[in-house]
Amino acid sequence: MINLKINHIPVSVPEGSTILEAARLAHVEIPTLCYLKDVSCVGSCRMCLVEATGARGLVAACVYPVSEGMEVLTNTEKCRKSRQMSLELMLSKHKKECLACERAGNCELQRLSIEYNCDPNYFEGEPLTHEIDYSAPYVVRDRDKCINCNRCVAACKKQSVGAIGPIGRGYNVHIGSAFEMSLMESVCVGCGQCIVACPVGALKERTTVDEVWSAIADPEKKVVFFTAPSVRATLGEAFGMPVGTNVEGKMVAAIRRLGDVEVFNMDITADLTILEEANELIARIKEGGTMPMFTSCCPAWVKFVEQKHPELIPNLSTCKSPQEMFGGLLKTYYCEKNGIDPEKLYVVSVIPCTAKKYECHRPEMNGEVDAAITTRELARMIKTAGITFASLPEEKFDDPFATCSGGGTIFGATGGVMEAALRVAAKTLDGEFEVVDFPEVRGTAPIKEATYSVAGITVRVAVASGLGNAEEVIRAIESGEKQYDFVEIMACPGGCVNGGGQPTLPDSMRNTLDLRSLRAEALYTSDRENALRLSSDSPVVRTIYEEYFEAPNSHKAHEVLHTSYKADKRI
Ligand code: SF4
Ligand code: SF4
Ligand code: SF4
């Protein structure tokens, strides 16, 4: 342990700690902008400059290591003046649209500028005239709000995508794609991890909220919403509730108050995905199909395979994602059953994710989901409608798509798809099999592995979240180092609970709380409390098969619930 003093307070920290880490243990907050726990630590923004004995001049606390007997001062006039000037320089080339910026009130630059009493016009910058990049249907980039902190670059690099990086020198340095390509032309897979990393409003989702409001107001349209499993575990954060609060009942009540709409549970098609996927896995094992089989419910992962690893396309499950299964189910089964013209049914999915916005635009999905809105957009709609979220009653989803199994709910956390599929596959292979918990595939470890034996069949599985970790798994498989039968990949680290469309919390929370575990626990608690643990036990799913698809992997199921992929080689 190293003993030092932070603002005269003694503290002992493990050797190798930075001053920033030591300060946290001494309950002292040092401001940061380019630093983000688990994502970025480059010491470039100069916000965390502090005075430290033994150092020449101010040092960046996020990268400077502690030493025995060191005395650190974090709040001297020299530190404050330095931070104020850094902020004023950033403001000189920042489009100051705080009145209408959706990050206003939740912007790290705004918060620090107020705290350090900055004059936003102290330095006169050049006029900001760059075009906003609206090329992609999921992410919007406004270069004139960017402060070049590089957090998005680090997030994208960690995803092993590298669609964006710094371009140019000095005052002209900016973040962009190779050859100044638009985001849509680049290798971006739409995961949105850059958005949640951004401390300001330079990156945001491409919103479709206005289209949804228009559909709600259109008397010719019947509007139905469905919500992804992870949204109930995060929406409360947008209304100041503690991280990990499950707000399922209030979420349903709030959506119902947006207009004359019905509210369905996407966990139902998560259950449906599991039945289709588990049966596809069993068929591949028994019939000698392409192995290992990879999950396909994450559209950013699918795009990653199509662009970077097209050789693995035969390994992808042919199942659509739960979002697209729901779109297909509503525009066929539901419309036929209720005599609704599919053209008049407006389907809105509420998702944790920007990649699912892109997925709606894939031509093979036939526009079955009309609009996909993120958790953040739903929160904005609830606020616009003047709904006091915290005081809402708990309400239930609408029939016929209300009751799901716990297996469908845990889809929102890394390992959830694998666990739900193992439950069903084990039961299908061995009717006596009673185990429903597979703890080996739970938790937020980047890569998890396990081997199970059921009815004489050995199944070797791997789970990875974050595309950088997926790349590791692919390398191990392709080199022959590892052999698996079934692999779950979710593009976002921790799975959908940490998706690019989830609420953006202040750095003070992101750098200190384990958001992924807290949010995932809300889903696992819901699973434990559900009397139905197996996706195949869901009465809704049973009715859907009885009335429409007959059996998993039937011809009709393939027409509506399955899809295909194609290689998309990019620079
Ligand atoms: S959306 Fe994902 S892949 Fe695209 S630039 Fe952002 S981090 Fe990179
Ligand atoms: S877009 Fe956001 S995260 Fe990326 S460099 Fe600019 S300010 Fe930082
Ligand atoms: S992990 Fe979930 S939130 Fe992230 S891109 Fe995939 S589907 Fe979307």
Which properties best describe this structure?
571 residues, alpha/beta, Ubiquitin-like (UB roll), Alpha-Beta Plaits, Rossmann fold, 3 domains, 4-stranded parallel beta sheet, 19 helices, 34% helix, globular, binds iron/sulfur cluster
Molecular shape: globular
Specify the number of helices: 19
Radius of gyration, whole Å: 25 Å
Kindly state the mean pLDDT as a whole number? Answer: 95
Biggest sheet character: 5 strands, mixed
How are the strands of the biggest sheet laid out side by side?
2-1-5-3-4
- CATH fold descriptor of the largest domain: Rossmann fold
Low-confidence stretches: none
Beta fraction: 5-15%
CATH-scheme architecture of the largest domain: 3-Layer(aba) Sandwich
List ligands, each type once: iron/sulfur cluster
Walk me through the structure.
This protein has 3 domains: 2-75, Ubiquitin-like (UB roll) (Roll), CATH 3.10.20.740; 95-205, Alpha-Beta Plaits, CATH 3.30.70.20; 210-561, Rossmann fold, CATH 3.40.50.1780. It starts with a strand and ends in a 10-residue tail after the last helix. The protein contains 19 helices and 17 strands. With 571 residues, the protein is α/β, with parallel strands linked by helices. Helix 15 (467-478) links the parallel strand 16 and strand 17 (486-490). Residues 139, 155-156, 159, 161, 163-164, 188-194 line the site of one iron/sulfur cluster.
